[in-house]
Each structure stands twice: as C-alpha cells, then as structure tokens.
Amino acid sequence: MNSREITTHISKAADFLNVKKWDYGASFSNDFSVQVDKGDAKQLKASQKQVLTIRVWNESNLVGITTTSDISESGIKKALKQANIASDFGNKNESTEFSPLAKEPIKVKEVKKRNPVGIKKLLTLLREAEVKLLDSHESIKSVPYNGLSESFFERVYANSDGAFRSFTKSQAALYLYARAEEEDKKPRSSGSIRLGYGVDDIDIEACIKEASNKTISHLNYSPIKTDKYLICFSPESFLTIINAFSSMFNARSILDGVSLSNKNSIGEKLSTEALNIYDDGLHEKNISSSPFDGEGTPTKRLCLIKKGKIESFIHSESTARIFKTIPTGHAGLGSKVSVSPDWIVVEKSKGDYDLKTSLNHSNFDGEFVYIEELNAIHAGVRASQGSFSLPFDGWLYKNGNKISIESATVAGDIKYLLKNIVNIETNQEVTTSGISPHIWVDELSITGDA
Amino acid sequence: MLSSQIKSNEIEFGSCNKDLLEEIIFYGLGLGADFVEIFIENTDNSSVLAEEDFITSVSPSFGKGAGIRIFKDKRDGFVSTNDLTKHGLMRSVSQAIEMLDITDKNNRVLFKGLNNHKDYSSTKKTWIYEVPSIHEISEKLLVSNKSLKKNNKIITRKGSYSRNLQEVIIASSDGTYASDIRLHQTVGLNVIASDAQYRSNGSRRFGSSGMPNEFRFWDHEKAANDVFESSMNMLYADYVDAGQMPVVLANKFGGVIFHEACGHLLETTQIERGTTPFENKLNEKIAHESVTAIDEGISEGSFGSLSVDDEGMEPEKSVLIKDGILKKFISDRAGELRTGHKRTGSGRRQNYSFAAASRMRNTYIAKGEYSKEDLLNSISDGLYCKSMGGGSVGATGQFNFAVEEGYLIKNGKLTKPVKGATLIGEAIEVMPKISMCGNDLELAPGFCGSISGSVNVTVGQPHIKVDSITVGGR
Questions:
Q1: Count of domains observed in chain A
Q2: Could you give the ipTM of this predicted complex?
Q3: Of the residues A181, A216, A251, the one at which a domain ends
C-alpha cells in the first residue's frame, strides 16, 4: 500500500466512524547492515519496517492517538477506532491543532539518488576496513564494535485538511570501534563514525584512520589528579553537552517545568557575547536532514543563542500558540507532542570580545584538560537541575606534552559552564550531530584516580 | 508435511500454525541453511501520562511482525518483516539465505518436523481482559499525583503507566515450537522540587511481569511518600566531594552496580567480542568470597521473569558467581555456537526486529549475614548510595553509574545528603572489593539496553559494602 492509498483508506475509515478531523505520520524503511569478526561475517541483517501514527480529534476537539505497524486495511480501521477511543482521554487543558504551516512550501535538498549496494558489497567493504584497522597498529587486537549499513526510507505527513507531504531518502553509516591491548596495561578503546547518503559517499579510509589514531593515542595513559582545570571541549564533546541540555531552548520542557529556562527567558544572558548557537536541520552537512517535522511544519534554521543571549525557543504547534509565535519545525507526532533540536551549529559571533584568544588547542603550551568525547550522557546529566557528572576520554596537556587520562569524570553546571567560556576558536568542525569550534572553559572539576 | 495440507496462508495467533511453520523451515533448510528460527510477535500496548491533576496523554499501539534467523556454520543472517503471510515469511527466508551467500543445498534431512506445541500462553489468554482499563488507570494516576503534592516546593508532578502485552510464537529447526503471552506493567512517579536556586528530582519506578491485577494493589500512597521524601532530602544537598572512598549501596536498585559492573561482562556476546576480562576465568576467583551472584528468569512476578526465552528455551537459574568463584556465563543460541557455553534460557530481544542475544533476566547478589547497620558501622568516612540512576559499561570493562540520592557516612552514621555523585571503576577491580553483603535482599525492576534492544530486567541485592571506589563529584 502506498502513502496515497493509506490516506484514502484513513479518509474512508474516518467517514465511517464520523471522525471529521485527523492527521497521520508514516514511515517505511528498508535497512541492510553487516557486522564482521576478524574477517568472518558475524551477523547480516535486513529489515522492512512500517510505522503509522494516526491522530483524531473528537467532537469536543480532544485528541486521541494510536501507533501501529499493521498497515492493512483492517489495521488502519482498528488504529483509527482506537485513536477515537483514546480521544475521550485527550488533554482538556492544552489543545493541539494542525500546524498552520502544514501546507507551506518545503525545501527539499537535492541529493543524487542512491541505490542499494547490497549485503555482499557491504560485507566486502567492512571486512577490508576491519583488516586495515587491525593492521594499522600492533596493539589493536580487535574491532569489537563495527557495522556498515544502508537505509532507504520514506516519510509521510497528511491531514484531513488536505495537507500531504512526503520525502524519500537514503542514508549509510559506518562505525569502527577498535580495542587495543598491551602487556601489563589496561585495554584501551576508541572509535569513529561516518555518515553518507549512500555507502559510496562514506570516506572509509578517514574512518579507519580516525579510529586507529584515537585508539593508539590513548595507549600511554596516566591517572589525573582530582582538581579544577582549564578545559578545552572538542567540537564533538561541546555539541554533546549542548544537546544534553537542549531543554533550555525547548518550549515543551519550559511549559512542563523541567527546563532551566522559563517563558520570560528570551534575552537572558547565558554566556560570553562571542557565542552564537543555531539549530539548522537543513544544513548542507546534515546527512539526516528532514524537510518537515512530525506535524508537517517545514524545517528551518533557527537562532537559539545570539551574542550570548537566548534568542528563541523551539516549538510545536501547541507550544507556539501558547507562546504567541509560530511553530519552528521541531515537533514529533503524539498526543502530547514533544520537540527536539535537529542539528546544532555553534559559532563565534562577529565582533571583538574579551576572549583569551591565545588558547588554541593545537599550540597552547600551558596546562589544560582536552575533553575529546563525553560518555554515559543518559546517566550523568540532570537536565532539569543543570548539573552533570560525566566520564570522558581525553588528555592532560602539560609542559608541551599530552598524556592520555586513564579514567576520570568532569562535573559541573551547564550555566556555570556557559558563563565561564573563555575562548571560542575560529575553525568549526563538522561532526555527526552538528558543527562547532573548540570551546575553552575555565575551572571545571575533574575527578581522577591520582 | 505437504504444502497442499496448509490450511492457512497467514500466521494466526491463538491457532495452530504448525504446517505453515514447518514448510517455511523446510524451505530454509532446503536452500542450505544449517538452522532456521522463526520468531513471530503480536503486540497490544498502552500508555497513560498524568501531569499535575490532568491526564495529558493516552497512547495505545499495536502491531505484528516476524524475525527470521538463519545459521550457516557460525554465521547468522537475520531478516525482520511486518509481512506475516506465507509469501512474506518465505521471502524473508530467501533474503537471509542470499545474505549468507549459501550455495550448499538441501539440509532438510536434519529436520524431523516440529515437536509437540508447548503452549505457555494457555493460562494467560484472559490477561488482556483482566488488566485495568484506561479509566481505572487514569483515576489511580490522578490520585497518585495528588498524593505527591505535599507542599508548595513540589513544582512538577508526573505519574505514568505503561502496559505491554506481547504474544509470541517461536519455531525452529531443532523442533522447538512454543507460544507464550508476556505482560509487563510499569508505573513511574516523578517530581521536581524547587526552592529559590535549589532544585531536586525524585523518581521511582515499579513494575511486574504477568500478574494483570498487580496495578490494582500497588500502594500509591507509600510510593508517593517515598518519592516526595527523596526530593525533599536532596533539595538542599551539597555536591559530593570527589575522591576514593568506601561506599554502601542500598538494596533493590543498588543491584545496578552488579548489572553494569559485572553482569554484562558475563554475557557470551561479550566473549564473542573479546570485551570481557572474565573470558578465561571460569572456576577462578573473580570476586570477594562474600559474593554469590545469580541470574534467573523464574521468580514469579519479577520484571525480568520469563516462561520461555525468545529462542524457545525455558529459563534456568544460573549461579554465575558462587562465593567469589566464576561458575557460569549467560548464554544464548549464538553464544553456545560461537563460545561453547551452554544456553541458559537467556536469548532475549526487544521485539521481532532484533535477533535474540544473551541478556540478563533477574540478576542479583545473594543475601549475606550482615545488617545494614553492620555495614555502616564499618565505615568512618564514606558514601551511602540510597538510590541509583542509570549506568553503562564500555568496551574495556569500565563502568559508571549515577547516584540519585546519596548521604555521607561519618563514624558509622548517615549524615548530610549529597548530590552529583558518579561511581566509576572497572569490574575486575571492584568485584573483589565487595566485602560485606547484608541480609536484606530485594529486587527492583528496570530496563536494560544492549545489542538486542531494550528488555525488561530485575536488578537486586542486599545492602553491600564496597571497600573503595572512585566517586566523581566536584
């Protein structure tokens, strides 16, 4: 059944149930992935998935929802019926409507169509990558986590008001996570991820090189003394922490009382004036971009922090109405609609600011801790309180030398962190979750073993 | 079995599908597979969210799908689909065969047909009618939320309920033919307390498997008091000072330390990856002699309990560590094939779209002989971890987990509350440091995410003392 047929079936079933107002989101995907173990195919996977989420509005304009993987005619009828029943329990205090932008034009990035390369080629490429990674250094004994996948999918949004959007795309991903072992030393491991629209877009050599270099560079490790340090966040780690505390910009979280911001926080100074943060789902480097959100609102670039101050929040239809603004293209599809950022872009704003510009991660010879990657975000972040305590991979730079840190955590408060930014380097780097330069923060607590 | 005998062209839940399943298995073996496994699932789920004094979300969902796994030598190919017709299932078999590049033909001689149907679901077919209605759930959540509003420092109150009913059919070329119905219910309460610049969270989750009436007997007043007190105790807490120190971990969810620090490293998937330091330590001492650890799937009502695992095997009680000596690994079909460790009824998956893997079920440290006070009295300066947050373990065996509610121990007594603590360490180093086990074993429900998705588990332990561990703080 194609998406137009689904729309027709829902429309017919809605008429039968006397449901006047409805919308739905659907996704259809075909995924293929491989894993290897020392040259042997370990697990080869293929999946065909379909998910349909239907919302209906009852006569009291209360919303009910149902999700199903059964997209047969009978499945659609059942889903609509269940959603109708669920609408009796719809939220009476906060209404949801169609997005006023659900029929606005959308920008779809022009991407050359990719065809499946097939399991056999995926397997061959991954085997070759594993061999090269194992051969790159004698201490690398295994690549315990690895995978190469390609996905082809379609997303659809339609409603009873005549809105209909769909887009198709493809995506491929490679991850290589190497483990190094040396006699009388603890094993070390590190990895790399690359995304592309298709397998042929992935720079496999760069992924191998990064996984190898990162793993090898941590072989000579030492414990670090517990203390407060000058910190340099890598682009990846800074984006990780901004995403972890994105509830600061999230209108839904603000309304729910779980954000550090409130309705009046627009204009609040969070950091140095040198900091700009955008959410830019349509950025040309965002492989995972989607031209519309779960409610059909077009995706767009949105400034979250401008010159250190909160500029705007991300919204669904209902939060935008409450805040007297327009939806921003960040919504999911639910009876209680969630919102989330797409692709964070961090930059140094234009102007002369009181920054310590001598702090550059490539040539600064004073003492600092370089945080390469933050781990266990789900366990160590208290977003509603602003606090974090996170294990990390990184180095202690001292007297021109860098020493891998054996095991340590960095702890602090997000507002303190943002207020204590002392430098924002000029060059931005692209990661899988956004773009950022290196960010320097003074006086954060590091707990080590020494 | 002849294909002409097939009565149905599509899998039907609650019916005998033996002929159809046999034909599909014959088909896979005929194409050269060593082993064919079919996992078919039908789900009927529902969730309800209450915020403050209102129901803000009711979300039913349902679906069906199949996961088909083919083994050839030690390789496996896995295909999942929503198409449960004979054509759809056979197409999945063909796709798996093609993926494995199988060219040998005709292994059907290995297959003598499916065994007699083991129907673990026969006493469970009424469960769907016995679980509370949305009306009943909503009312109880609203009453629970009201109980959370004990003073004006409580600024948000949430109560959530979810019910997952999963009907499964498992058939494979070793003759396995089983059906089951699984029911999991969870209730969560969560508050945020605030006073000027101070903020704290309080949260607790309760859950059961089977037991459709369980939610009706849930003591929401007691739960609400617990969550409220936790948030109040932590509201003005100072950040913990970082360092190495002895800790006492509370019973119930304190068991997450064993789950993360050691349990994952005893799964055969970790042996396959070469990421466990315990690979060659069978019958060797890996923990303090006071530690006996068990993983089992048979405690009635416990969140990680199973009548049959997702590969059709009844779960066994596995004593993993006995008096500090490593006795057994947690193994699934692929684990047995690739590592030689016998299956333990631990093949588990989130749903049909994941291949089963060796996963923990109800995992706990057995009770010892000490009281909680004995443990505290043995410490002059340390940390008491009353409530744990989530945790993780990395590819080198390094684990970490957050302490949600903690108190300093001074001269054997609990003193001021502290926040922001993270416990970090390595399994091989921490297990010998669990030196005292209390006599108050309790289990707690949770969710575990790993290679085969998120599965329901129980963690548990009595109060335990760890002689020294790194506490991350400020």
A1: 2
A2: 0.88
A3: A216
CA–CA distance, A321 with B397 (Å, rounded to integer): 49
Q: How many CB atoms lie within 10 A of CB A115?
A: 10
A 262-301 near B (Cβ less than 8 A)? none
Q: B17-235 domain in CATH 3.40.50.620?
A: no
> What is the pTM for the complete model shown?
0.91
CB contact at 8 A, A387 and A379: no
Range of the domain at A383: 220-449
Contact B200 A385 (CB under 8 A): yes
Residue pLDDT, tens place only, A258-315: 999 999 999 999 999 999 999 999 999 999 999 999 999 999 999 999 999 999 999 9
Domain boundaries, chain B: 17-235, 238-472
Mutate to test the interface with B, among A225, A226, A316 (most CBs of B within 10 A): A226
Does residue A319 belong to the interface with chain B, where contact is any CB pair within 8 Å?
no
Which pair of structure tokens corresponds to residue B79? 């295909």
Answer whether B348's CB lies under 8 Å from B363's CB: no
Interatomic CA distance for residues A55 and A296, integer angstroms:
13
Instruction: Give the separation between CA B82 and CA B88, rounded to whole angstroms.
Output: 8
Residue keyed to tokens 């029929």: A103
Rg (CA), chain A: 24
Burial, A60: exposed, middle or buried (Cβ in 10 Å; 0-12, 13-18, 19+)? exposed
DSSP reduced 3-state for A118: coil
Helix (H) or strand (E) segment spanning residue A305: strand A301-306
CA terminus-to-terminus distance, chain B: 69
Mean pLDDT of B239-256: 91
